[in-house]
UniProtKB/TrEMBL annotation:
Record's keyword terms, sorted: ATP-binding, Nucleotide-binding, Translocase, Transport
Protein name as catalogued: Heme ABC transporter ATP-binding protein
Pfam family, one: ABC_tran
Organism: Metabacillus lacus
ABC transporter domain location: 2-239
SUPFAM superfamilies found in the cross-reference section: P-loop containing nucleoside triphosphate hydrolases (SSF52540)
Length: 487
């Protein structure tokens, strides 16, 4: 649809963009990224014909841009500039109607029913019908932006060029506008070329991206290729991290502010064991990975609650009930990893392992009423019961994602071995149990202090986690069994 070959542009002999080549397919949403002054607007102006290219060629639908008359070009291509100047006081409707100009024929440029219908349709699509009779100077910046988009759409272009279209728009309108553009690319084969400053919006909506730096192409390709931590850091000259969108396979970039991390060393003194629950109140937020009833997955939490419930507890609405329980006791659910156990909190076992440059606190409650051999669990009915072994591993150190997951593996292997050595059997299969049906785990780290890259069994961290979980789990099983025998 659009072919840009070795294009160079300048202002009064001063280069602004050089050697730019890329191709945009029909129906693509193509994003142009780059820091301030990197040549994005200059490139868009050369494509729209507003600024002449010094060298290279730009063709649209296989025909050089220079061979198009201005009316022909306007029928094919519409532009939504970064800043629109309001030289006349038009109404919203009049402003949108101007978009029909390239399609009007005859000396009198008569207004047809088709023109009327299209103006209505685009005002509907951009949500500006209610502003129809307002003067442009009397509406907000975000509303003006939507009017200019409607005007561009009224042109019925095959290619839409946008310079920062979400500028001035609130969150909902940013999403609405980009949802609309995406829909038009899919349903009407509209080709969209847009400049973005918001890398995350570009990643969410664009099929491909072009990253400019100092007037040249730094990278181009799918969002996952272009939005690499190193290239974004180098091009934008700032600290930035990359993570995955929680629901879609697209990268999202996060700014890393220059705040100084203060090292806090945690110990077992923050642990409270009472009749109702085991609580760890951390003075700082800890990075966590857990399978808690609240705070599951990856997050940052300060409170850790392992709450006793009766063994006949009804698990059907357990998440809401647990969140209510936590809030009533002053633990904000959004900052708390909450677990349940039928074991009495007094039977919790904890220990601290201090190594040369890091330390680990481990706390375990272990009820084995629902013991299961994981290799034979298909023979069990899917019944949820609060029996459980709950394992907490709190680490003074900075863990990689890899180390978090390896710690979960190491702790699980150590727990399985503890059950085996305590002679715990799966009641259905009669074989050695490897856990219980509703076990939970928490790995939490201060993310300050030494970098602990790995948590596998033979690493320094893995050795502490393995030994600690094994010893605490055995002792916790023995304690809860003793209580059962005496009851
Ligand atoms: N009208 C102009 N006259 C002279 N130089 C200009 C003009 N417009 C832009 N430039 C220069 O050309 C270079 C590229 O500018 P351009 O506007 O294309 O960058 P951009 O990537 O769109 O920046 P921004 O993100 O700030 O909008 C910059 O060095 C800029 O100062």
């Amino acid at each position: 649809m659009l072919d840009v070959q070795d294009v160079t542009g300048s202002y009064s002999g001063k280069p602004a963009a050089a050697g730019i080549s890329f191709h945009v397919k029909k129906g693509e949403l193509f994003g142009i990224l780059g820091p301030n002054g990197s040549g994005k607007t200059t490139l868009l102006k050369m494509i729209s014909g507003i600024h002449p290219a010094d060298e290279g060629s730009i063709s649209v639908k296989g025909k050089p841009l220079n061979d198009y008359s201005s009316r022909e070009r306007a029928r094919c291509m519409a532009v939504l500039p970064q800043h629109s100047s309001l030289s006349f006081s038009y109404t919203v409707r009049e402003t949108v109607s101007l978009g029909r100009y390239p399609h009007q024929s005859g000396l009198l440029h008569s207004w047809s029913e088709k023109d009327e219908n299209i103006v209505r349709e685009v005002m509907g699509q951009t949500g500006i019908q209610h502003l129809e009779h307002r003067q442009m100077v009397e509406i907000s910046g975000g509303e003006q932006q939507r009017v200019y988009l409607a005007q561009a759409l009224a042109q019925e272009p095959e290619i839409l060029l946008l310079d920062e279209p979400t500028n001035h728009l609130d969150l909902a309108f940013q999403k609405d506008l980009l949802d609309l553009l995406k829909l038009l690319t899919k349903e009407r084969d509209l080709t969209v070329l847009s400049i973005f400053h918001d890398l995350n919006l570009a990643a969410l909506y664009c099929d491909r991206l072009l990253l400019l730096n100092k007037g040249s192409i730094s990278k181009s390709g799918a969002p996952s290729e272009v939005l690499a931590e190193k290239s974004i850091r180098d091009v934008y000259q700032t600290s930035i991290g990359k993570q995955q969108h929680p629901q879609l396979p697209v990268p999202q970039m996060v700014l890393l502010p220059n705040t100084r991390k203060v090292r806090t060393v945690l110990d077992a003194s923050f642990l409270e064991i009472s009749h109702g629950c085991v609580v760890y109140r951390s003075p700082v937020y800890l990075k966590t990975m857990s399978s808690g009833v609240t705070g599951a997955g990856a997050g940052w939490n300060r409170y850790f609650v392992n709450r006793h419930v009766d063994k006949n507890y009804d698990c059907s609405g357990h998440r809401t009930e647990m969140a209510d329980y936590l809030e009533r006791r002053g633990f904000p659910a959004a900052e708390t990893v909450g677990m349940m156990t039928a074991v009495f909190p007094e039977d919790a076992v904890y220990c601290e392992y201090k190594e040369k440059d890091f330390s680990v606190i481990i706390a375990v409650t272990a009820g084995t009423g629902n013991a299961v051999d994981a290799s034979m669990s298909s023979l069990h009915a899917p019944l949820m019961m609060p029996g459980t072994i709950n394992t907490w591993v709190i680490i003074n150190g900075e863990l990689t994602d890899e180390a978090f997951i390896q710690c979960i593996m190491t702790a699980t292997e150590a727990k399985a071995r503890a059950l085996q050595d305590e002679g715990i059997k799966d009641a259905i299969t009669g074989t050695a149990a490897s856990g219980t049906s509703t076990d939970s785990i928490l790995i939490a780290a201060t993310q300050t202090g030494p970098l602990l890259e790995y948590g596998g069994t033979i690493t320094p961290l893995g050795k502490s986690v393995g030994k600690g979980v094994y010893q605490c789990t055995r002792k916790a099983i023995e304690k809860s069994q003793r209580r059962q025998q005496t009851c």
